[in-house]
Amino acid sequence: MFLKRHPLLSYFLLAYLLTWIVEVPMMLDARGLLSVSIPHWAEAMAAFGPFAAALIVLGVWQGQTGMRKLIFSLCDWRVSGAWWAVTVIFPIVIMLAALIITGTAERFFSGELIRGLWAEGRWFDVLVLGGVLRGLGEEPGWRGLALPLLRGRHSALIASLLLWPVWTFWHLPSFLMRPEFALGAWFGFSLGILAATVFLTLLYDQTRSVLLAAVWHALINITRSIAGSASQDAFFVFAQLMMLAGTVIIIYWIFSGRNVKA
Description:
The chain contains 14 helices and no strands. By secondary structure, the protein is mainly alpha-helical.
C-alpha cells in the first residue's frame, strides 16, 4: 500500500489536499476568479488539514498506537520548565524588541494597541483564528509526524531545510487570499517560515513535545500580529529578529557538533 510504503510523502499530499480543498476556492473568490460562499472561519478549520492528515497516515501506518502517541505528545505538558520558559518568553521578547527598536513600545505598554485591536474587532482573528487554532491545527502534522520522520534520516539542519519549502507552499492559498500581499511580501514570509522551521526543530529536538511546538506557533503568530498592528516597520523588524534567531541556531548546530541525525 502506497501510504505504508511512503508515509512522509502521503502525509504531505494529504495535508495539502485537506487544506487546499477549502482554501483554494476561498482564494479564487477573494481574487474575483470564482464566486463561492465559504464563511471566514472555514480558513481556520482548513488549518487542521495537517493534523487530520497526520492522524490518517498514522492510523493506516501504525494503527491506534501511532495515533495515541501523537495525541499524548499534544497533551503532555510535563516538559522542562526551562523549555516552557523559552517557548513562552521568546515570542514576547521578539515582539517587545521590535516595538522598542521602532519606537512604538509606548503604544503597547499604554494599552493603545490592545484597545485598537479590540475596537477593530480583530482580537478573535488574532488570538483564536490566527493563533490558537493555527498552532493546534498545524503542529501535530509538521512537528508531530513530518519532522520526526525527517530527523530519523537527516541532521537537524537538513531536516529543517527539507521541511521548510513544503510548509511554506502549503500556506500559498491563504497568502494569496490577501490582495495586499505581493511577491516581495511572499519572499519575506518564506524567510520567516524558514526561521520558524529552524526554531521548531530545535524545540522538538530538545523536548519531543508537540504541545510546546503548538504553543510557540500560536504565540509567535499572536505577537507578530500585535507588532504588525503597531506599524509596518515593527512587523519587518520582528521578521528580521526571527531570522537572526534562526541564524544563531544554525550556527550553533554547525559548530557544536549537534547537527546529526536524531
